[in-house]
Structure of Aldehyde dehydrogenase (NADP(+)):
Amino acid sequence: MTGTMNTGTLITGQHYIGGCWHGQPQAGTCSFNPALNQPLRWTFAEAGSMELQQVTELAESAAMPYRLSSRQQRADFLEQIAANIEAMGEVLIETVMAETALPKGRVEGERGRTCNQLRLFARLLRSPQEEVHEQAEPDRQPVPKPELRLRTVALGPVVVFGASNFPLAFSVAGGDTASALAAGCPVIVKAHNAHPATSELVARAIAKAIEQCQMPMGVFALVHARTHAFSEQLIQHPAIKAVAFTGSEQVGMHFQRLIWQRKEPIPFYGELGSQNPLCVLPAYLQQHSEAFAGQLFNSVVMGQGQFCTRPGLVFLLRDSASDALKAQLQALCQPHPASAMLTAKIAASYRQQVETLQQSAGVTLLAEGQGEEEGCVTKARIFCTNARTFVEQPLLREEVFGPATLLIECSDITELQMLLTTLAGQLTATLYANDSEQASVRSLLQALEQKAGRVIVGQMPTGVEVCASMNHGGPFPAASDSRYTAVGSRAIQRFVRPVCYQNVPAWYFE
């Protein structure tokens, strides 16, 4: 693929700052092809103190004029970005595939989701702005009531860190950027090191839209930086008013601590990990064991297990149906071929985690897939344990990022519910049950909603609908702030703050 892509004239390896592409690509900062386990031909610049000063000054200078742009203008801008992304056609698709080893169908679907997100926020902007307006009551006794309007204003410049596992939908023009731009905030994106060429192509689509829609030059910037120092300095800069991050709990909490140390603390919206527990009740499993096994295994290995909503914990009752399920999962897993993950670092971490699980007392490796593991390539695995072991070994409740899941067999519903109380916050929690299990369903759903931002019945958690009713977040560490969603139209609320206008004349809002 590296010899067939016609992207040589498009990928410069430079930063996009203030309407210009600049910076000298450095040797040894290559993009990488995980499927072929070899470097790609592109090299990239490294941001430093000069770029830090430029992006922050430009974003700060663009903040007021962009906030004062009309909702119609911002809607046109978002729609133009979507159109420009689509116009890139196969060049973008092939670049993503080369940098991620994701199949073409997955990449095309993610491109569609990315553009749909942009258009979702454009539609939101074209609807009337939400406000609470209360008329004055000058004759009210004993104190007159003033005229009051409650509206929102943009926070200011936002830093977005792209996610490794969604190179389009959670990256340069993904949901964080789309919602921040819709809110009226300039955005500085730190390109993810796993897909820098993809990041540049999408940034070019945004740069073109800035010119087409005559937006302020500082409304968007893309910087490449492989060292943590630049990111740390960026999020601590006084011009930055919010940060959006998708990644590990370790890095996310490091960023959160840096933000707490700022003279002016700012919102930090981090998605930091989730095991997405799934509960299946015995009556359902007895009737649908084979179909459920297929759905579960497909969900676990989808995208080589690199979905943030992969079901990593499966709770079930120990009986003949659970024995049948284990046999069915073994039959599905054993012939499943090894495949490449997004990066060698992610693959190495996965192998280390599953090795730790395999060596844990009371944990059984039920099955693993076929093939050799090296470089970015890993195999699927199914583990099994009991309730007591799950309680006694906290590491079993930690996220394993990759194509693996852990079955936890319980003696009864009471024990299952007790295990749920040991879990940290989750993006999703799922329940499979039939109509005869209604009494158990109610109590389990009540328990699950205490732990997750999205509660699902009868459907695997992988896949997130982008719409007004979606919530993609949850109690920590699923999200650093459980009150907000990273997906759907309500994601815009992360980047605005309320302002009450008292006796301000109506013409001011026109």
